[in-house]
Amino acid sequence: MELGPLRPGERWYAVRTLPWREARARAQLENQNFRAFLPQNLKTVRHARRFSTARAAFFPQYLFTIFDVTRDQWRSINGTIGVSGLVMQGELPHPVPHGVVETLLDMTDAEGLLQFGPQLRVGDRVRVVAGPFAEQFALCTRLNGADRVRILLDIMGGQVPVEVRCDQLIAMR
Question: How many other C-beta atoms are found inside a 10 Å radius of the C-beta of residue 133?
Answer without folding.
Answer: 22
